[in-house]
């Protein structure tokens, strides 16, 4: 009898702990569909309307707007786009109706001191091209719509009508493929806002570098070339890059970011787990799975593999060189094995969050945005940083 009662109390205690964790780490926000975008052909891969989640600002933040662009990689041909079409990354009909806002999207000052009372929007990603595609024709056999650039504009237009046209401050942020979206659309976003609006951009885990894989092949360059071809992206990439480089090269931030006029903050792990898994050691370059355990958990990497990853880090830092001298650029480059650190509470701002020079990501970004102090710091090599939240994949 006592054992049964003890088990019940432990169960109740566990539930209470879970509820407290959920409440601290985030809260749910409902979905909004941009239904009128369909008539303009601004649709997801499957032809469904674009979508976002919107939590309205309040108090002093009522005229400030923060957009966070969801990630989700890319599709680079009909086969991979068909694979995405019937998922949340290709159809708004497959998206969760509620998503958790945490980190940079949190609505409590304790967890997000600089942006908690802004209008905060999470833009859903359903086009597979970092919002660059625009192909008019639709093959009836596949019903694939390559309309990312139209989706982007439809979402922005909808938000402008809902009050963003009166923005005093605006912050375009995003993670992974959404972080790349930020870099590709940063100046364009700024141009759509009123003169006098304070506009800045934050790319989180979106600084994908043009590096060779383990075999020496340019695997990522080939993927980006196919993305641009499949989605008809060339005309929607920054002209400051395409005027002197190939469109597929202009998917790489290192060739675009130095010419961005709007202030830009790069938040990235030097050992970005997505880049290690998909650029340095993709499956095609590791047919025998020698890197399998290392890619799942950096503590499982051999000395030789760590040496290779140290070389990748140096290449990554070299791709940032042109940004280091810019007074408008912020950098938080830690030596963690992770991917996306702004939208998760544990890495954005918590007692045990990652730090550089004892400064959290939240404070570094906030100080930079509000011009309280610049922030441009690059971590020492792995494994020196003990504040990292290194990802372990199953």
From TrEMBL:
GO molecular function, one term: pectin acetylesterase activity
Phylogenetic lineage: Eukaryota, Viridiplantae, Streptophyta, Embryophyta, Tracheophyta
Record flagged with keyword 4Fe-4S: no
First-listed, main subcellular location of the protein, grouped into a coarse class: secreted
Family as reported in the entry's similarity comment: Belongs to the pectinacetylesterase family.
Enzyme class: hydrolase
Organism: Thalictrum thalictroides (Rue-anemone)
InterPro entries: PAE/NOTUM
A cellular component annotation (GO) from this entry: plant-type cell wall
EC number: 3.1.1.-
UniProt entry keywords in alphabetical sequence: Cell wall, Cell wall biogenesis/degradation, Hydrolase, Secreted, Signal
Regions crossing the membrane: none
The protein, known as: Pectin acetylesterase
Record keyword Hydrolase present: yes
Residue runs in coiled coils: none
Subcellular localization(s) per the UniProt record: Secreted, Cell wall
Signal sequence segment: 1-26
GO biological process: one example: cell wall organization
Function, in words: Hydrolyzes acetyl esters in homogalacturonan regions of pectin. In type I primary cell wall, galacturonic acid residues of pectin can be acetylated at the O-2 and O-3 positions. Decreasing the degree of acetylation of pectin gels in vitro alters their physical properties.
